[in-house]
Structures are given as structure tokens and as C-alpha cells.
Amino acid sequence: MSQKLNWIKEFDKPLAIAGPCSAESEKQMMEIAEQLNKDYVQVFRAGIWKPRTKPNCFEGVGAIGLNWLKKVKDEFGFKIATEVANASHVKLALEYDVDYLWIGARSTVNPFTVQEIAEALRDTKKVVLVKNPVNPDLELWMGAIERLQQQNIQNLGAIHRGFSTYKKTKYRNNPQWQIALDFMNKMPEIPMVCDPSHICGNREGIFDVSQQAYNFEYDGLMIESHHQPDEAWSDAKQQITPDRLLEILRKIELRKSDDEDAFYHSKINHLRNEIDETDQGILETIAQRMKIASQIGELKKEHNVAVFQPDRWKQIKDNSVQQGEKLGLSEEFIDKLVRAIHQESISHQNQIMNKENSN
Ligand code: PEP
Ligand code: MN
Asked: Start and end of every Chorismate mutase domain (predicted)?
């Protein structure tokens, strides 16, 4: 935590950004701000300009909504946040003294857009948050942060909102946690906020995804909340009431990065030694498998038989999935594992096939 940028340290609880997907009316904004618990929520969010997938949908109320955001700040004391997608949004947001500006997932994919926003924000002391791009590209996400850093913008943060997939999974946007964890390893000073609303696309999964984020020691959450979620003009299915939000924020358990307790340390060291030994065993077993695969490769070469045998591959996979199931390992995991091992065997055998005969 100590290496994180200072702006995140001003909060004694983890950062919670909440508020509607979109500003709809002054009444709606005031109603929601009134209902959000000020002890748990520090920043009020609302989209003013909305990037919609299809035309002819509600595309945000536009600049008039900034008056309502400002009113929320003045009357309820929240910091306020909105999405900016071009230089004129930035100019208006700064005029209305918006405290946190975020770059949306559809903008992060476009270096021209990010550059334009970065230049418009040059030298700002405002907090600027960058959502992950819609596609799973770590470099693009980090590149956006670097463009902002190059314009001397220092109060930066990242928002993990998941990644689009063609095939729909249980998530609207697949979290692919590893990408955000890699981001945190490569840019440890940048605070990481999770957006479970856009990851889940529904209300039911929000607690679990939020808890998962805190298990990974994220610095905060951005959760869409609306006083009448079913009536919301955008993202109705994923918005939750301020009451439900409070329940979630109270229930989440925070994890520490370590514990001073001596018993904990001796126990975890012992278990880690066991893990190291087990890993060693796994690698030795895989190396042994590759040796056998190479012998098979020699045999195939002698008999001029093709390296890849689809029936045999299917048999290996089906057996492994069946055995894995008995051992409590998921089909998805076994599929990835066996595929990786099989590909390595195939590449060993290909090397043998392509080797010039030495005699
Ligand atoms: C939003 O936060 O309302 C939004 C449009 O998010 P994203 O850019 O993650 O789709
Ligand atoms: Mn939304």
C-alpha cells in the first residue's frame, strides 16, 4: 500500500465510487446522492456523455448534467466523477470542477483519443482514472497511463471493468483477473479500482466480484447505483440501490498483505515449502513425459507416421477430463493444462521429424 500514489491515501476506508450509470435529471441525481451513505461512499459518479454500442439509444444528457453533478458536490460534499472522451468534454468537466475524470473502455483502445485527452488535461492535479480497454491488451492499458504521465498528470489510477468476448459467458465482460494483476505488478504505484457492475452486467454477481477484488488487494470499487434501478435509462440490469450497495460495502472483508503473527508465518512457510516440492515434482513428471513423447517421435519418424493423431488426442483429453473430475479439477482447467502439455509434446516430436538423418 505504501508505494501507492498519495491521492488514494487520503481515504481511511477503501475508495468507493458510486452513483448512476447516467445522469438523467436533477431530481434523479439528488435522490441518489441523498440515499448514498456518506461514511462508505466518497466519490459520486454519473455519466454525462454515454458511449453506446448502437445509435438511436439514450446518449447522455450532455453538458447540462454537469450542473447537477456540481450541485451534488456542493450539497452533499461528495467528490464528483464523470467520463471524458474528447478534449471538449475535458474542457467542460474542468470548468465545472469535476474532481475525478475517467477514460472509458472504448476510448482507451484508441491512442489518438487518449493522446487528445492527455493533452487537454496537461499538468492537471485532478485524479484521472483509466479503464481497461475493451480488448485484453495490457500494453494498451499501460500505454494510456504513460501518455497521461508524459503530460505531467500525476494523480492517476486504473479501473478494471473486464474484457469483451464474442461468446457470452456468465459475465458481461470477462474479468481475466491475470491482466489486472500483471498491471499491478508492472505499475505498483498506480491504484487499482474494480468496476464489478460492468464486469457482471447483472446485480447478482456484484458482491462476489467485489470481494474477489479485495482478496487481490485492490484499492477501491466503482459500483453503479440508482434509486430505481429497473427504471434506469442505461445499464438498468446491473445497477443496485443505495441500500444494497451499503449492504455489500459492509459485508466485504478486507485482506491484509501480511500478518506479523509468528504462528501464521511458520505455518505459511511450511505450506509454501510443500508447494515448492510439489511444483518440482510436477516439472520432473512433465520432463519425463516429454522424453517418452520423443521416443514416440523417433518411432513415428521410422515408420513415416504423422505427428498429430486427432483420435489419440481426443482420447488423452477425454481421459484426463474424466480423471480430473474425480480429483476435483475443473474441466476448463484440465482442458488448458492437457492442451499445453500436448502441444509441447507435439513440438518435441516435430523437432525430431525435421532433424536431418545423421547417417
Ligand atoms: C460506464 O462506466 O458507465 C461505462 C460506460 O463504462 P465502460 O467504459 O467500462 O463501458
Ligand atoms: Mn454503465
From this structure: 262-353
Whether 359 has a pLDDT exceeding 50, the answer reads: no
Which residue has the least CA distance to atom 2 on ligand 1? 21
Q: What's at 212, amino acid-wise? A: Q
| 56-to-37, 52, 143, 231 alpha-carbon distances in Å | 35, 9, 32, 18
List, for residues 174-209, the tens digit of each pLDDT value: 999 999 999 999 999 999 999 999 999 999 999 999
85 three-state secondary structure: coil
Helices (H), 77-126: 87-95, 105-108, 111-120
| Nearest atom within ligand 1 for CA of residue 195 | 9
For 219-230, write each residue's pLDDT tens digit. Answer: 999 999 999 999
Distance 306 CA to ligand 2 centre (A): 52
Does residue 208 share a domain with residue 72?
yes
Residue 56's domain spans which residues? 6-254
Side chain identity, residue 334: I
Give the number of the ligand closest to the Cα of residue 225. 2
Q: How many domains does the chain have?
A: 2
